[in-house]
Structure formats: structure tokens, C-alpha cells
Amino acid sequence: MKKITAIILATLTLLALCACGTAEPREEGGKKEYTPDYGELYYTSGDTKFGIMDPAEKVLEALGEPVNGTFESDSCAYQGKDYFYYYDGFEVMVNDVDGTKRITGITVADDTVQTPQGVRIGMKLEDAQKLMGDEFKQVGDVYKYTEGSTVLKLAVGEDGTLTAIEYAVAANDK
Question: I need a surface site. Which of 10, 17, 79, 85 has the fewest CB within 10 A?
Fold first, then answer.
């Protein structure tokens, strides 16, 4: 029970840290353009590869019906609502960004899944760093890996194991 409580608290802390910011569009030909720029910081579920700022429609269609439901709430980071889709082992957050629903957050919810690099909740920080490399920024007990417009956050508990994993918009994480 303590492990579940710790995971929930760590996840909520990470969400609060990235909440009220805005994604910055690129200007291309006078038009705002959000081009996914996540490099190797993407997530996979089955044959579906996706990341931060990907258009959500096709990704959600490929993932299928959320097995653990959906939720929506007013957003302080974007216009309108935050939409949450709950799948086995992970969650996807979607927002309306200039008229297109885009993925703005991916949270690994438990230790039944892992990132494409092999990082999973419950593993030792040192093992995760071997997989992710030394290019990170530490803020308290959170280790942040940034590539393009994506930041991957790894929260670490007192025992040195990962308690939460979250992909977010890097512009929201300043």
C-alpha cells in the first residue's frame, strides 16, 4: 500500500510541476506550426510510436479504447480542457493547441510497462541513468532529460528507485 501511495504522490507532484505553462510554436511562413520534436524521447505501446505534440487523433485511434476510462478537467496550461486517456500501465494527456488536439503528456502509471530505452518504475536510478545517459538536469528528486520539445522526468524515492516517469512539453518545464 505504501508503494502505491508513493507512486500516486510522485505522479501528482510531477503533474503539478509541469502544469501551468505554454508550448511555444514555431513560426513557419507566418503560420504557427507545432512540429513534434522529441528525437529519442518518445513512447511506444505495441506497434504505436508517439510523443509530445503529436496530433492525438491518429495516436488515440491506434491505441484503441482506453481500458481504464477517460477524464477531463479545465486546463490552466492550454485553452479549454485537459483530456486524460487511461491505458494499461500508462496515461496520455491531450490538449487543444491552436485548433488541433495534441499529446501534451504521457505518464507511465506502474511497473508493468517501460520506456523504449528500458526504463521502468521501481528500477534503481543508477540503472536508469545507464540506459538514458549523463545529459540530465536534477531538480530535487526529479531527473530531467530533454530532447527538442520534450522533457522526460524521472522521479526518485528515498530508496533510490524510480517512483514516477513522465513525458511533458519542455517549454512547460522552465
Answer: 79
